[in-house]
Design a protein that fits this description.
This protein is of the alpha+beta class and about 70 residues long. It is built from two helices and four strands, in the order βββαβα.
Length: about 70
């Protein structure tokens, strides 16, 4: 299992399209998507866990919401 060791997916910047590095089975590709698309792509690529540091009470609440959903 691959673990994303530090991320900020609760950030508002992931509410709209963002660029990220993807994997198509043969090599890395530059992809674009919102938070949901990125998290789904991570799961499909075998990334089973992401460590999401909270930075304030609001982001902690968003992190808990994301944890419940994914």
């Amino acid at each position: 299992m691959i673990i994303d060791s530090h991320a900020h997916y609760a950030s508002r910047s992931f509410e709209s399209a963002a660029r990220y590095l993807g994997w198509n089975g043969k090599g890395y590709t530059m992809e674009e998507g919102d938070r949901e698309q990125i998290l789904e792509a991570m799961a499909a690529a075998g990334i089973g866990c992401s460590i999401e540091p909270g930075v304030d009470m609001a982001s902690n609440g968003e992190i808990l919401r994301l944890c419940a959903k994914y």
